[in-house]
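User: what does the whole thing look like in 3D?
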Amino acid sequence: MASSFYGVEDQVQAIWVYLEHRDGSLENVSLEMLSEGRVLADQMGWPLVALLLGHSVENLCQDAFIYGADQVWLAEHKLLENFTIEGYTSAIYQIFLQSKPSVVFLGATHDGRDLAGRLAVRLRTGLNADCTGLRIDPDTGVLICEVSGFGGGVLALIEMQTHRPQMATVRPGVFSMRQTTSTPSKTIIRPTFTIEPEDIYTKYIERIEGDYVDLTGSTVLIAGGRGIDGDFQMLDALAQLLNGEIGATRPPVDDGYIERERQIGQTGVVCSPRLTICCGISGAFHFVVGIEKADTVIAINKDPKAPIFDHADYCIVGDVKQIVPKLIDALKTKV
Amino acid sequence: MTRQTKEETTIENEQPQPAIIIDDDVWEQLIDLTDGAAALCYQCGTCTAACPWGQFTNLDLSVRTFLRQAQIGVFQASEALWLCTTCAQCQPLCPRGVNIVDVFRAIRTLAWQNRTVAEGLPSILWSLYWNDNPWSQPPSQRSAWAGDIAIPQFNAQEHEILLYVGCTSSYDSRAQQIALALVQILRAAGIQFGYLGNLEPCCGEAVLNLGNRPYFEEIRAKTAAVFTQHGVTDLVVISPHCYDVFKNHYNTISKTIQVQHYTQFLTQLLEEGRLRFSRSINKQVTYQDPCYLGRHNAEYAAARTIIDHLPGVEFREMSRNREDGLCCGGGGGRMWLETPAGERFADHRVKEALETKAQILATACPFCAVCLEDSAKNLGQTELEIMDIAELARLGIE
Amino acid sequence: MPELNIFVCMKVVPKSEEIRVNTETMAIIREGVRSEINPPDMNALEMALSLKDRYGGQVSLLSMGPASFEFYLRVGLSVGADRAYLLSDPQFAGADTLATTYTLAQAIIKLGGGDIILCGDESADGATGQVPAGVAEWLDIGQLSMLTNLELDLTRRVGRGRRDIKGGYEILEVPIPFVVSVQTACNEPRFIDFERKSWAFTEAQVITWNAADLEADIEYIGLRGSPTVVTGLAEAADRDRQHEYIDGTPQEIALKLAGLLEDILESV
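Assistant: Here's the predicted 3D structure for the full assembly of 1001 residues, as structure tokens:
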């Protein structure tokens, strides 16, 4: 088979993490990868290197160090101010040919997977996508990735023997963010690379951003269905006490009781909270898909035959409108 | 009014524009598809007056206008075209005997050709194409409703009937209860019956009534072949929609296969003495005539006979019954379309049921059972129980 | 102005819920498993046909797989595509995304390159989401990702795509030619055109090419051209829930729940 541009012999044993940033701060997935990267770096005795591209972003290096980076390779240029696939691929390609990392992680975000996809082809190397588990073989330095396929029904372990860098995109929300207790070296390196205006062909025409709700990161999720009759205030009171977020099935969203960003399920958000409490939800297939990965599911529904009970750890057949207020009172007295 | 073909449109600037341009091709197609049904209409408007949309909701369906357009060969994409539930409330009242439902099916056929169908409908057909059911459910789960009950694979030599469950009773959690109840009754009566399990094909009724005529014919051919392959001679179905389409629209098998709705089969068993009710139920019961048993197939007696045989049941008719019964709103493909709250026929039907002061509203159709129960829940009616005939009859055998 | 040359990369995938794994041979068990066109690719096809409706041109389907994929390409033709190409060769088997994107790119190059190349954002089986970027890289052209809407300006030879971002959206413009990844469920795929279907299943030709036809470098195709290797395969454990019932009066339930929540959340 055709080899990558550099291989095992020329590689520099290090774990590199590509940092994604938005509105002046690093994305959570970058901090998660640094945290997990720190663990792997300590196991292997390799440096943990963060790769940061942009314009006037040096202040973000500090966060990278707090989450475990030994070095930050900082590539700043006006033409890198906005993410463009062509600009970023070109710059990183040049940097990798200099630095020859053995392992590279990128977040499996929209931009992250495009970037990883193009880089991997440009470097003629392999790429493991949307990884949920990462391990490095201590003897061989080979990265072993856990990925899922077939809608989550199948798990696979994948590795590359000879191609370098070993690239992987990492699923957001799988690893936890941990600030480092050790004192890594904290060096900033500014690599040389060239980028010209003619290299950039993607134009930003318009961008509308606003406040957003991101349920994918929630630890505690209180979801309401038709059975709560739109009383999301009641659920919100409960969510506040448990430091959680509220979500909904489709009917209350369609009826206008709550915003669509909070819709959970196949056509909404898929979450993996530690705890979810399903209130007045019948448990149709397309909703359950959204909470399947929760560690613990509690379901409250009047109908003993509601399908939600097939997917719950704790089942309560009862009137949610009576139980939840009493639960709120009980929790308040405990505090 | 001048009849112009598309090529002859020469309009002088000073003269007023024609209000409509008639398309000969459209006209001919509609005549073909409906066997000239629309030509009989003399635009009296009785159909529009009879239509439940006008009677009970704020949404307009001018049936008469659609008939007019069909008559003269005008096709206009419209949302109202998809309101029709094919309940045929208009048909018995039409003084000219126009097959109005056929005309709606035909206009819908043109809509598919022009790609002006309501949003969500192509997805239903794709669901059928890849999953053999309109509910976007996995085909490998079709028989999961039976749980631990081992229903024998159909064998023409051993089995008196093929039980045809249908997509809705296979996948909808409420409608599955009807199938389970029916199985219990058939076993209690000692009937040797078989089932096709995950190989059970869809009857295609939704496609017929949503108007995709060529796709319906494709489904029909495949499903008829499955029945022929298995040597089926006696078919008992749960849904009146499946019943209607097998009986009246499957030309290749209607001569060789006897199709019965399960209420007809149970009536037969009662008359033969093979099914007996021993337990007394002691309830007041009223009954929803499903459009596809009642108006479409003149079957009003079977369910009533069964109710009559149930000990301790006091039967009360709703004021609108039999031919005057009100549709639950699920037909014509509308089970897969959203009807805004407050515009649902089923809400009114539940109110009509409550007027009888009956404790149980009996149905004989999974669409009716689902829609009426949904309405009862939304109206906060916890006292009125909705039961399909099978569920009611099961109370009589336990 | 030359006619728009639109490509749609189409994958046929097994129904995920029917897949089982043979843990001994470490292989996916595909016998008896139903297949379908990868649903996001149907959205890509719909976007392509919508471009054809508005701007004219030809839509060609491209698929890498065994001969059995031909049926699905014909379904695509009956929906509205004009041509179909099946890249089929035992040597293509076992390809990871590096080899797959190389093979697809070779076919596009053989066909003179495309103006717009559309792909679904990811496949229902592998779900790597890497094919669009990989194809764009091999062809050395631009890309627009996760689009919900695409418009073209054929005088300026550019495309403008809209994509969702957290709390909003953005509109990006790139010069033609470019690759598009289409956001799953961003449109409703039109159903089969039955008048077209008889042509699609009889007269229409599905052109099949093997590695030699593509003049493909065998070092880059199939298992041989794939750097990544699967070393372990398992079915994900079925999420077994406890199904423990809590009863009592609403007050009793509330108290039991409060205690339970305290325990659960302590470990969070």
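In plain terms: Residues 215-334 of chain A form a domain with the Rossmann fold fold (CATH 3.40.50.1220). Residues 67 and 207 of chain A are 30 Å apart (CA to CA).
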